[in-house]
UniProtKB/TrEMBL annotation:
Lineage summary: Bacteria, Pseudomonadati, Pseudomonadota, Betaproteobacteria, Candidatus Accumulibacter
EC numbers on record: 3.1.3.48
Boundaries of every Phosphotyrosine protein phosphatase I domain copy: 10-160
Keyword Isomerase included in the entry's annotation: no
Name of the molecule in the record: protein-tyrosine-phosphatase
Family stated for the protein in its record: Belongs to the low molecular weight phosphotyrosine protein phosphatase family.
Amino acid sequence: MSKTATPPRYRILFVCMGNICRSPLAAAVTRGLAQREGLGALVETDSAGTHGHYHAGEAPDPRARKVGAKRGYDLSKMRARPVVVADFERFDRVLAMDQQNMANLLRLCPEESRAKLGMFLDYVPEFGLSEVPDPYYGAESGFERVLELCELAARGLLAACEHGQLAP
């Protein structure tokens, strides 16, 4: 009798600036899509901010929670936190929402973990964007746009995980 191998479990950290808008949405969307597609055992997600100390302990922005809830993504238990050096060891992939946060991650990340860094939108290269825009100072429609981008990138990311090709 052969044993069925359990799929690899990937730990993915999503990073934006304050950890109250983009990165919590990215983590919730990726986790939610994985569960809906029967891939929940494949990925574990979390989020953090390069300036997470600004909002440490706070729930995601109410607009992020609202647009997420409209599509069935639960952000209610998430709390903002800063990126810490231990994250680079704990996570298999650390994905930035924009170039500014990637630059901040490069300053924090030990040399031996730099291969784990990437951009979230690298998982949808055909879309032609490299950054998830920060919706914080705008209207709710900006959060809806971020959610759409997160869904596209999360599908590409999950496909890469499912095929054992986590790196973009």
